[in-house]
Write a structure and sequence with these properties.
Distance between the termini: 68 Å
Strand order of the largest sheet: 2-3-4-1-5
Number of strands: 5
Number of helices: 14
Largest sheet: 5 strands, parallel
Helix content: 55-70%
Radius of gyration: 23 Å
Number of domains: 3
CATH architecture of the largest domain: 3-Layer(aba) Sandwich
Length: 387
């Protein structure tokens, strides 16, 4: 059995700048002494946790250790392999029933592969009661079952789970490596790819969207320019309302197509796709789906607002490094003139205060403060030094 080299071939080709982590996972595929039944893959957003988990699952099942070309590899990466189960959620938390179902699945023997692989994305979204359901399955696993949990950091997972998993840590990939991946995958120009990678803080998914959708990139720059040029409390409050509404609109646009498809699939499965009036039992299931979709849309809105806050943090990082004349590249070079004007006006103290305010806004929203109130408070605090 031969494993692909660490040059980005085979199933590992989507992992950017993660040579150390890939080496650990590849060794586990070929060396039984390096293999274990439970893994915890951690890394910052955009580092490729989900890609690493899928690549590892494919390599474990592949007769050639992750060739990326055989039916086994392609089915795992496409999400259709019967021996690889992936739990991902758009909800605020992972439901306990979802984990119970996974535990049941984990107890079954593989259909045709070497392993039964269970991947839990965003394992940090499990509350303690839900995690306890998972604990026993990880403590006493079936002989051919492998658990792969993904989370931003080890501290985001309860110690009882963390202590039973082998940890693999991913890092923020190099900006140029992300740009090279975008050029290779999407065929955009090297400069567009590099600008997108910088703006996205090397978050691969975000960088690809910015590079491939000019409207998204334009809206992002317009929002940042508005933050730099707003004046007074009234202007800050007005801009906060616009930015939060834009986040809601974006979340709705991303959700509408999938929500309509889910409703259609449910009605088809129930044999009710042609009914004008739904029977009570079917209405109840449709209502349950709609409530679930509402929760997921809410989660997407919060994630979109958080992305806005990350962009604003990057903006004032640029203001700060410009104010101190640091010899580093800015993340938002397309509005460099605005950044230089803000640096001259605000100086280092106000730029640092703005970064602290962004961190506070993210903490408040994580604590269930209404996004509009948190963004208003943030923008007012930024606008006040200019009064």
């Amino acid at each position: 059995m031969s494993v692909q080299s660490a040059t980005g071939t085979g199933v590992w080709g989507e992992l950017v700048g993660q040579d150390r982590a890939m080496a650990t996972l590849k060794r586990a595929v070929t060396d039984p002494s390096a293999m274990t039944h439970a893994w915890l893959i951690t890394g910052p957003p955009g580092s490729g946790r989900s890609n690493a988990a899928l690549a590892f699952a494919a390599a474990l099942q592949c007769p050639r250790g992750g060739c990326g070309e055989c039916q086994v590899c392609t089915s795992v990466l496409a999400g259709t392999n019967p021996d690889v189960e992936v739990l991902r959620t758009d909800k605020v938390v992972i439901a306990i029933d979802e984990v119970r179902e996974l535990v049941t699945t984990a107890g079954r023997s593989p259909v045709g592969g070497r392993w039964r692989v269970i991947i839990v994305e965003d394992a940090d979204r499990m509350i303690e009661r839900t995690t306890n359901v998972l604990l026993k399955a990880i403590e006493e696993p079936s002989p051919r079952t492998v658990w792969i949990l993904c989370a931003p950091s080890p501290m985001d997972v309860l110690v009882t789970i963390r202590s039973r998993c082998r940890a693999v840590s991913l890092q923020v990939p190099d900006t140029q490596a992300v740009a090279d991946l975008i050029v290779r995958r999407d065929g955009v120009s090297p400069q567009v790819a590099l600008d997108a990678a910088r703006a996205a803080w090397s978050h691969v998914g975000r960088a690809r969207r910015l590079a491939n959708d000019p409207a998204v990139a334009h809206q992002r720059i317009s929002a940042l320019r508005a933050v730099l040029t707003m004046r007074g409390v009234a202007g800050a409050v007005r801009l906060a309302g616009e930015l939060v509404q834009n986040a809601k609109d974006e979340a709705a646009a991303l959700s509408e197509e999938s929500e309509a498809r889910e409703r259609g699939e449910l009605l088809t499965a129930l044999g009710a796709q042609d009914l004008r009036t739904l029977p009570p039992a079917i209405r109840s299931q449709v209502r349950h789906l709609e409530e679930d979709q509402k929760r997921r849309r809410r989660r997407r809105e919060i994630d979109t607002v958080d992305q806005l806050l990350i962009d604003i943090a990057g903006l004032f990082r640029d203001v700060l490094v410009t104010a101190i004349d640091a010899q580093v590249e800015t993340l938002n070079s397309s509005i460099q003139d605005d950044i230089e004007a803000a640096a001259a006006q605000l100086g280092t103290t106000a730029a640092l205060a703005a970064l602290d305010s962004v961190a506070l806004a993210r903490t408040r929203i994580a604590g269930n403060v209404t996004p509009l109130l948190a963004i208003e408070a943030l923008l007012v605090s930024i606008a006040e030094p200019r009064r």
